[in-house]
Amino acid sequence: MLRNNAWSKVRVTVSIIFLILLGFSPLGLGKGKTIAIRGSTTVLPIAQRLAERYHHLHPEVSISVSGGGSGVGIKALLDGMVDVANASRPMKTKEWKIAEKKGIKPHEQIIAKDGIAVVVHPTNPISELTMTQIKEIYAGRIDNWSHLGGPDHKIVVVSRESASGTYECFYKIVMKKEKVTPAAILQAANAGVLNTVAQTEGAIGYIGLGYISEKVKPLKINGCYPTPDAVRRGIYPISRPLFMYTRGEPKGAVADFINFVLSPEGQRIVQEEGFVPIRPTK
Question: Can you list the domains of the chain with their CATH numbers?
Answer without folding.
Answer: 6-113+242-272 (3.40.190.10), 116-233 (3.40.190.10)
